[in-house]
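Reviewer 2 asked us to include a model.

Predict the structure of this chain.
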Amino acid sequence: MACCLLSGLAAALLGAGCARTATKTGVVPSGVGFSMDAVKEIFGSYSEGNFQNRAWPDAFQAMHQKLSREYAFTDWKKIDWDVLYDTHAPLVEAAELAQDDKAYYLALRSYLFSIPDSSLGITTPETYREEAIGGGYGFSVAPMEDGRIRVVQVEPGFFADMAGIKWGAEIIQWNDLPVAKALEQTSLLWNDTPCATRECRLLKQCALLTRAPVGTTVSVMFRNLDSESVWVTRLEARRDSYKTLSDPLQQEISFSEFDSPMVDKVLDGGIGYMKLHGQTATLATPFPARAFRRIVERFLDDDVNGLIVDLRGNVGGLDDLAASYAGHFMQTPMFYRDQVAFDYAKGGFALNKAASITIEPRTPCFTGPVMVLIDYSTRGNSQALADSLHELPNVTLVGASGTDGSWALPGGKITMPQGYVISYPIGRMLDESGSIRITAKADLESPVKPDILLPLTLEACRAFFQDGRDVLLDKALEEIKARNTVTSS
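Predicted model (structure tokens):
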């Protein structure tokens, strides 16, 4: 169909008989020697997703057709592509009529963020982001187990601090709305990616609730800890370099090529600890499989009483590495994943037999008690690593929430007018029975959840934010010591 379209366009241009022909997509050279390569250069390639030289509505329609055909989880997430198109196409058309680039971009972003999958992405112009959420009110909130929304960080010297909002304060109303209702209405449009799970949505809505355009005012009703008094104050959003937008639990740690993707140490009680930031090589650790093996060897040499594998904030990485790491806990082979991906040659999704991975046992093998720490910032194939280890009888998952809920084969790319680039998954990962692994369904439930759930309570937040204690790590240590006591008695 794309070839026919390009052929028709080429014929029309050649028949014009003029040196240059004006079209919706720009000024097109024509004349003797006009070729399909020239048409491709100007109008872009459908298979490559290059629509940047088309009119905005035409590019949007082509994007929609390509994405709805190649996106890997349409049925799994029950995506209604017709509704998505009918909702957003008029917005794109209106934006073109007004030549309003911001309205056009927001229509694209809204379309993508209607799909609950953190594997999706779009170029984010800093100007638009700054205009939308560049201001902060000087505090961060988090949802408690009892349903209350409490202040977990207060920036010294900002309006919230000066207005008397203290750490641990309960937020009761936001702009005269019950705070629960205000959270429901908080848009996730300016989150880094769409959220795949209900837990992630709530946490990110808490982060975005306290963001607004610089200069925006808000009325906040709150009650400080150990106080019966309810106060109402008006705050103004000030520029703060997105300080309150960062992960309040501080697990999403950036690491560079100059950092190792893994950290290890022996904790009190003779318990080994390893933090994995991602399954990847860096300049600091060019051979991560060897580095991981050496860590396991050191733990065994030190005769540790158990092991904690911390996958919080893990961004994922190479599946071969994840399978290699898991192999040091296996005594028999375990199926890891199959891969079904969109194949242009076959005109649809097909099983890639060459991409199948089985976890093979590796030496040395750690068979003692293992606690794996997870939360909503456990992303990509780190979820598969946790889930595979969870099949073992000596492994327990510990966390405050389920994992990110998105795991896919990346590779889809669409370039839109104004240079906006859309990325999307073109393949899904399957278990041995052929079911999709890890990725959350339309019900927004994470498939990888902790066995030991440590919910956010006021006491847990006080330990973490006020006392500087890692309550999940403490819980994992406590569990290993308790199991060792039972074993030895």
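The mean pLDDT is 90. The two ends are 73 Å apart (CA to CA). We have added this to the supplementary material.
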